Amino acid sequence: SFSEHYDYLVLATGGAARRPPWASKGLDGVCTLRTLEDGIALRAFIEQRRPRHAVVVGTGFIGLEMVEAFARCGLDVTLIGRSQHLLGQFDRAFAAPVFDALNHCGVSLHLGAEVRAIEGADGRVTGVVSDAGRHAADLVLVATGLRPSGELARAAGLSVGTSGAITVDERMQTDRPGIWAAGDCIEVKHIVSGEKVFAPLALTANRTGRIAGDQIGAHAVGSALTVETGPADILALLASLAYIQQGDIVVQSFGAHQGCAAAGDRVSGMMKNCGSRSEEHTSELQSPCNLVCR
Question: Does residue 288 contact residue 254 with C-beta atoms inside 8 Å?
Fold first, then answer.
């Protein structure tokens, strides 16, 4: 162990994939997908072991992305979800194109079915037992969500929300002076309900990291940046042009943090040859920030 002094501390401990109790047997072929290393390991498993039957548990973004990928690899794919919905709480009418794409790709879909057990032999997974029956499997992807990695914050006595994520204000500051937090480890304010929610999304992590960095830079020189709430994002957004200089620290921040992102239609990509994916287009103004320490 070691100790390190700090003037400003940022907790960006992220999150970890949830593993239900039934997924903790340590069987070969049962995996999660959270990091780049997870993806590399999963691809190596498919190339080396040549599995034939893949079961994906979870109907969120990761689960559906991997259903598409497995189908393109020629695997027989079964998708199991405890919810009656796809993609979170999307009503069936809005998710109809996704249902059509899954049917087109020959995916066996079981909604409203909870996984009860996982079976294995000789240390390898052989099947999944759910409310819908038994499903043969030599590859199981557990995509049942993300949990915040808030253990360090709790150990330090920082306030955490009901989700276990760190509580922060609109400037990403915790209830402890000098400590900020950002990314998948925090709760953010929902723009519609006004409630604190755990929203582990890439855009959320990107915005909160920028806000925390801008606020710390301003705080370090005794200034403050205003934070405004806009309807296009669940986060408080920055709109500033700042040039701050004091002593040995120079911070420059240009532009505006835009609260909207336009994504291309991925469903049509799934429909074409079971997953010829269209590119995802993101529209935003970048805000370069230069930190110069002399």
Answer: yes
Averaged pLDDT in 10-residue chunks for the chain of 294 residues: 88 92 87 94 95 95 93 94 83 85 91 93 94 95 93 93 94 94 94 89 92 90 58 35 34 33 34 39 33 31
State residue 109 phi and psi, 5-degree precision.
-110, 130
Q: Which candidate, 230, 186, 229, places its Cα nearest to that of 205?
A: 186
Indicate the pTM of the whole model: 0.70
Task: Indicate the Cα dihedral angle 48, 49, 53, 55, nearest 10°.
Answer: -80
Residue entry with tokens 């230069």: 290
How is residue 282 written in tokens? 């993101």
